[in-house]
Structure formats: C-alpha cells, structure tokens
Design brief:
Blueprint (H helix, E strand, L loop, with lengths): L2 H28 L3 H24 L2
C-alpha cells in the first residue's frame, strides 16, 4: 500500500470517528437519564480526543 493511500485511509477513519462521536453526543443530549448522560460523556471525550490528536499532529 502506498503512503498516499495509507494517509487517505487514516484521514477517512478520523473523519468517521469524529462524526460518530458527535452523533453519540447528540443522542445523549436528547433524553434525560443516567445512560444518556453516559453516552454524552463518552461522545464528548471522543471529540476531545480527536481534537487532541489533530492538535498533536499540527505541532
């Protein structure tokens, strides 16, 4: 696999993960229960993780 293809796949995976974390956060914020609060916290932690990964690569 060429380097360009590998970088493209990694970028696509990061985008998909970010969208999944945002969707989990939105689903968690829609309802009020302890389980939905857990989903929201997981989603927010994922978004923060993705931002940390992005900022680390732009150093």
């Amino acid at each position: 696999m060429s380097d360009k293809t590998r970088r493209g796949l990694i970028a696509a995976l990061k985008i998909v993960l970010y969208v999944v974390f945002v969707i989990i956060t939105i689903i968690g914020a829609r309802t009020t229960s302890w389980a939905s609060l857990g989903f929201e916290c997981i989603g927010l932690a994922g978004v923060v993780l993705m931002l940390w990964i992005y900022n680390r690569s732009q150093k």
